[in-house]
Each structure stands twice: as C-alpha cells, then as structure tokens.
C-alpha cells in the first residue's frame, strides 16, 4: 500500500507533533521546516496551547551557573542548556538571584546596585529600577508571575513582580515591585 | 466509557455487531469492543449493527479494520472498567506490551491505522499511533522527515527556503 498523500496526513500532523518531547524544542523547530503547512501548525497559537496542555509540566531547558573568573571582581552568569535550545549565553557582571516560570532575576555585580529580569527563551531583558541604595542593603529577591492564581505558568504571558526582602534596619522589610 | 447493555434478550451472551469494510468484508465483533469507537458507539446504542444489517465503514479497508478490531478487542475490558482504575500492574503491563508490539508494523499500515482511528474516533488508538509516528521522526532533519513520510522532493524554491531557515535555526541542528 502506498503512503497516503501528505494532504491526507495534515489533519493528523498536529496529533503527531503534540507528542514530541517538550524538553527537546529543537525537534519542533526541525518539524516546522518540513513544509509550509507544518510551519503554520507549529507556529499556531492553538497548537502551542494544546502542546502545553498535553505535556503539563514545563521542561527544564538549562541551568544558570554563577562563576567568578580570575582573582579580581570578574563575575559571570552562564546559562548552560541541558537541552538543545538557545541561548548559549554568558553574561558578565551579573549574579542570578532567582529563576521561575521562564524568567531570571539577577543583580549587577560587584555593587549589587541594579536588578533586572531576563527571559532566556526570548532574550528580552528588563531593568527594574536603578536604586543606588540597593548596595547598602542586605537583601534577597524573587521573581513571580503577577497573575495571582489565574496563570498555570506553563507559558506565562502575564507580567511579573519582584519581591525583595531586606533586613538592614533590624526589622525585615518586604518590597513588592511590579 | 460505559459498555453498552449486553444481550438482546440472550441471557449472558455478549451482544455482537457486524461491521462491513470498504471492500465488503464482514466482521462480527462484541458491541463492547466496537464501542471503543465514539462514532460507532452512537449507532450501537441506537440498536444498529445487529442481525443481518451490519454497519458499513466505507473509509476503512478490511486489512485496516482487522487491525483496528484487534486493538479494540484487547482494550475493551479495560475501557469497560472506566479506564481500569482497579487493574492490576500485571494487566497494565500486558496492555503496554501489547501496544508496543501492535505498532511495530509497516509504516503504510501505521498511516492507514491513524486515519481509521481518527475517522472512527478511537482516542486510545489514535494516541498510540501518533506517539509511534512522533518517535519515528522526532530526531530527524526536515529532509529526512519528508522522505520518511513519503513527501515529494522539494522544489528548488522550497529547498532554498529550507536552507535559509536551517541557517537561521542552526542551534536546532547541533
């Protein structure tokens, strides 16, 4: 029996592609290049929503590793992919404070005077604020999705907020930044 | 999925239905097994398919239907138990072994099966075959996927477009 024509398969292509492993995004990229129809399917919002619903658990794409290079104040935050996905990135002068729901919160070294949120998958980054007094604080911070309870965090398209805790004044203070 | 009431007054005997493939082969099968197909379930619940009537399936040939029914007969008891929440580990392992062997077949049969599972709305079978096809192509390049699935060779224009995209998404080929 001859294989059916590709047009017959198309209505089932989505069913097949839904079952690609989520921790290997490269496989979906390659599938998108098979033909225009497949590209349209993979790029479609509907497919992406179904893909997330099918797999439920977001994949781990890589780890962030904070390193100090040499003996001086040379810090580097490296993103080391654990799956074939971009980016292979090294950011000098940053230390990672937190990573959640696809976002990375990091502060500028050596003075801890700037915070920014970086999205490794899109490459976008957003400097939160420039607070010179940050460097005088003893603090830690976390980045959270701002859609309280309304987001399943499989693909956060909402904004984010940063919660910063400092204990510099002898009492613990919590700052919420959005 | 609930199994249809068994018996047409035949105490204890499972109700049978007849399915007719596109090449006019008749298959007699338990209604509970055929009801794994959402499409057939409606007809069967309405009392169709019994006696000499039979349910014609103009889109499914006899080789494919035979394979589809092999799956349905094996999975019917578990489906009748509502997905078999109380199935033993042995039962589940046996079904898994069956599924693995079941899809270890020629590619063209796989395509016919997935089309039939889609048309007959047999969710478990469609999922099983889709997973098998996904496993066959997930590690391949776009050209290898095209060849595997029997696409015609790309036109020079399509080939140029694919090459340009492969340059842009080089990380997906490392």
**Which sequence of strands runs across the widest sheet of chain A?**
4-5-6-7
Structural class of chain B: mainly alpha
Please state the average pLDDT score of chain A.
Answer: 80
Q: What is the C-alpha radius of gyration of chain B, as a whole number of Å?
A: 20 Å
Q: Return residue spans of chain B where pLDDT drops below 50 for at least 5 consecutive residues.
A: 1-11
Kindly estimate the percentage of residues of chain A that lie in beta strands according to DSSP. 25-35%
DSSP helix count of chain B?
8
What's the mean pLDDT score of chain B?
85
What is the makeup of the main sheet of chain B? 3 strands, mixed
CATH T-level fold name of the largest domain in chain B: Potassium Channel Kv1.1, Chain A
Spatial sequence of strands, sheet with the most strands of chain B: 2-1-3
Strand content of chain B: 5-15%
CATH arch. level architecture of the largest domain in chain B: 2-Layer Sandwich
Largest sheet of chain A: 4 strands, antiparallel
Number of strands of chain B: 3
Envelope shape of chain A:
elongated
């Amino acid at each position: 029996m001859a294989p059916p024509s590709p047009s017959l398969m198309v209505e089932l292509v989505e069913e097949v592609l839904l079952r690609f492993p989520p921790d290997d995004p490269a496989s979906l990229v390659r599938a998108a290049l098979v033909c225009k129809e497949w590209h349209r399917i993979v790029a479609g919002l509907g497919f992406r929503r179904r893909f997330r619903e099918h797999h439920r658990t977001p994949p781990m794409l890589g780890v962030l590793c904070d390193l100090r290079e040499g003996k001086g104040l040379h810090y580097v935050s490296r993103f080391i992919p654990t799956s074939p996905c971009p980016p292979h990135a090294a950011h000098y002068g940053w230390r990672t404070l937190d990573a959640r729901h696809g976002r990375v919160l990091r502060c500028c070294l050596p003075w801890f005077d700037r915070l920014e949120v970086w999205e490794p998958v899109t490459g976008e980054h957003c400097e939160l604020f420039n607070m010179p007094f940050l460097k005088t604080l003893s603090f830690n911070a976390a980045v959270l999705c701002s859609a309280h309870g309304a987001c399943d965090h499989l693909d956060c398209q909402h904004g984010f907020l940063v919660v910063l805790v400092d204990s510099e004044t002898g009492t613990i203070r919590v700052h919420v930044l959005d | 999925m609930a199994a249809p009431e068994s018996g047409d007054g035949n105490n204890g005997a499972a109700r049978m239905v007849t399915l007719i493939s596109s090449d006019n082969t008749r298959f007699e099968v338990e209604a509970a097994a055929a009801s794994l197909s959402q499409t057939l379930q409606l007809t069967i619940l309405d009392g169709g398919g019994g006696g000499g009537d039979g349910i014609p399936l103009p889109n499914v040939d006899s080789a494919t239907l035979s394979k589809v029914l092999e799956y349905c007969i094996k999975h019917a008891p578990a489906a009748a138990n509502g997905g078999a929440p109380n199935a033993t580990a042995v039962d589940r392992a046996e079904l898994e072994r069956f599924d693995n062997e079941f899809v270890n077949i020629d590619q063209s049969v796989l395509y016919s099966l997935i089309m039939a599972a889609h048309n007959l709305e047999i969710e478990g079978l469609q999922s099983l075959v889709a997973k098998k096809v996904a496993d066959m192509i997930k590690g391949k390049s776009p050209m290898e996927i095209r060849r595997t699935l029997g696409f015609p060779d790309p036109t020079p224009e399509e080939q140029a477009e694919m090459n340009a995209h492969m340059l842009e998404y080089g990380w997906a080929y490392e």
